[in-house]
Amino acid sequence: MEPLDERTIRASFVNCSKGEASRIRMPAGLAGAGVPWGDLDFLGWTDPGAPLRALLVAPGADGPIGVVLRRPEARKVTAMRSSMCRVCLTEHASSGVALFVAPLAGAAGRQGNTVGEYLCADLACSLYLRGKRQPRMRLVRHEETLSLGQRIDRAMGNLDAFIGRIAAG
Q1: Domain count within the chain
Q2: Fewest Cβ atoms closer than 10 Å to its Cβ: which of 18, 40, 92, 113?
Q3: Which among 109, 110, 107, 155 is positioned nearest to 130, based on CA atoms?
Q4: Residue 91: inside a domain, yes or no?
Q5: Cα(127)–Cα(148) distance, integer angstroms
Q6: What percent of the chain has pLDDT over 70?
Q7: Is the pLDDT of residue 76 over 90?
């Protein structure tokens, strides 16, 4: 992913007001070398000032497109189950995947309509795809025959479909 500055990120959000976008805290290390841009297909982070708000900015045909997501509240996991991220298809213990909910863009979102998707809880899909991060507990190991490029293309197609549903309102 190409590096983005704060102004570009704030202007990219499609499902919140300009005022809301101006109050979002940027990810740590954005101005310095703290963001591994070369390993990212999209930028995802939790707002440090609002821990139930997550943000995601992905490349789009007309420039970056950002969406505001609501994270679920932390819950205690009692059973050991596996869950799969619907973007990168990484399998995690159930606590490694969370249902993120986004208000739709435009009038539909202002009326309270939302759409959700199961994503890696830390929004680090790009790092899981590249093997730079591993799920904490792997219950089942599935080997894929797709190349890294093919897995990235599949993940970005999945993410683009989710963002498209949000942006369409």
Answers
A1: 1
A2: 18
A3: 155
A4: yes
A5: 11
A6: 93
A7: no
Residue 37 lies in a domain: yes
* Residue 141 resides in a domain: yes
User: Which residue range is the domain that position 38 belongs to?
Assistant: 6-168
Task: State which amino acid sits at residue 67.
Answer: V
Distance CA 31, CA 7 (A): 12
Residue linked to tokens 């190349």: 147
Q: Which residues pair with 116 in a beta bridge?
A: 101
Q: What is the pLDDT, as a whole number, of residue 30?
A: 85
What pLDDT, in 10s, does the model give residues 18-63? 999 999 999 988 877 789 999 999 999 999 889 999 999 999 999 9
pLDDT tens by residue, 84-107: 999 999 998 878 999 999 999 999
Residue 78 reports pLDDT greater than 60? no
- The DSSP string of 77-131 is --S--EEE-TTT--EEEGGGEEEEEEEPSHHHHHTT-EEEEEEETT--HHHHHTT
Q: What is the Cα–Cα distance from 131 to 103, expressed in whole angstroms? A: 31
